[in-house]
Amino acid sequence: MYELMQVSQRCYYIQSPAKIGLIQVEKDKVCLIDSGNDKDAGKKVKKILDAKGWSLQAIYNTHSHADHIGGNQYLQNQTGCSVYAPGIECDFTGHPILEPSFLYGGNPPKDLRHKFLMAQPSNVLPLSSAILPEGMEMISLPGHAFDMVGFRTSENVIYLADCLSSRETLEKYQISFLVDPGAYIKTLEMVKQMEAEKFIPSHAEPTGDIVPLAQFNIDKVNEIAEQIMEICAEPSCFETILKKLFDKYELVMNFEQNALVGSTVRSYLSWLKDTERIEAEFDKNILLWRSR
């Protein structure tokens, strides 16, 4: 873990729970794509950089989830590097309390204020194509997060962030976190059309052929949607839907899973309602969801 892996002449990734991209922009200068999940991750990254004699110029965050921005503060304090994040992700990165607040739907309890859901803040600037190194392209990948992006390098290596999960992860957890299932499917359909020397997903093995895994992720989204519509054949409240999904997939409920999966299921309900596959009704002051 935390081993530097070379992909092409100037493109690398650091093997870690969420892969960290590394691009050599000059002989002794590099930039990172994400920074790991906490201060300890930052320390391990810094050790790798020091061993290579590399100076860290910038961190480009793909999105604001804690396992991708957790090393920002430490690395920024140690190196003075700039930190960038795209769109709404920039606000969440600068104010990490927004992440558990968004997941919970209110002021989060202490149970959700931990490093896996709430990183330390960093001094972050808006990410745009104009500030990227020459030959590096930003790719919009919404769905898993509001404004998530990936990157294509001049050597045609594509860093895909969290736009798909490994088969093993999906088979274990079943319901991957999404803010917009519809946008997620569109993103994966776009990714299926891409060609690259190597694709580097954050939570799956690097590959030259991303199509089978992208389709597997699409199929899983459609499966979850079908399960929700089946549950809603009878008018059901949110808590009932959530319980039946947990029971179906043999998941274990706790505060973190309630927030992560609960937020995702609410996003599925919004998507299904907006695409007119389910409808909402209020009965005795209870919001019920019913398949059309």
Description:
By secondary structure, the chain is α/β, with parallel strands linked by helices. It has 2 domains: 3-162, 4-Layer Sandwich (Metallo-beta-lactamase, Chain A); 231-291, Arc Repressor Mutant, subunit A. The protein is 38% helix and 22% strand. The chain is built from 10 helices and 13 strands. It has helices at residues 39-52, 66-69, 72-79, 87-94, 98-104, 167-173, 181-192, 211-231, 238-248, 255-274; strands at residues 3-6, 11-15, 20-26, 29-33, 55-60, 82-85, 124-126, 137-140, 149-152, 157-161, 198-201, 278-283, 286-291. Strands 1-2-3-4-5-6-7 form a 7-stranded mixed sheet.
Kindly list the characteristics that best describe this protein.
292 residues, Metallo-beta-lactamase, Chain A, Arc Repressor Mutant, subunit A, 7-stranded mixed sheet, 4-stranded mixed sheet, 13 strands, 38% helix, globular
